[in-house]
Design a protein that fits this description.
Largest sheet: 4 strands, antiparallel
Helix content: 25-40%
Oligomer: single chain
Number of domains: 2
Strand content: 25-35%
Amino acid sequence: MANIGPIEVHFGARGGRWRTWLLVIVVALALTGVLDLEPSWASSLQKAIKKNPEQAISLADHAQFDWDTVYIFGPYTDRGLVDEELGAGTWAELGTEIELSDNVVLFVFREGQEVVENHDFRRSHGDFTTCLAAAGLTRQAARFAVKNKGLVLAVE
């Protein structure tokens, strides 16, 4: 038996080989991004961006868990900058691909000094490169609007 997060796979005498291959395929799809493993807040935000281009979108309406600050890091951000802003060693815990990719921006949510959620948000779902916030945004300030097919920080 093997556990991979919420997945539990039993390797038995019957059918063990095909189960092993199934597990390998699922893991490969997840790692290549073919299998969509986005958190619910990211899917909700993506839908809001497509649906409401004329209205300000509050990140707090979609990320409905406890957080007080969100950091948004752009493509090719160096691990040193992330550790400088969030604390030494944080980069290693995030599992991000932003250092080597221009396809994603990294969202890091913190409650106090603790990272409570992070996700590489695909730019094809909403391009936040004009809304980078390495110094962080409060729940109230994390509001965005679609402008010229890109996103900008919304001002009240």
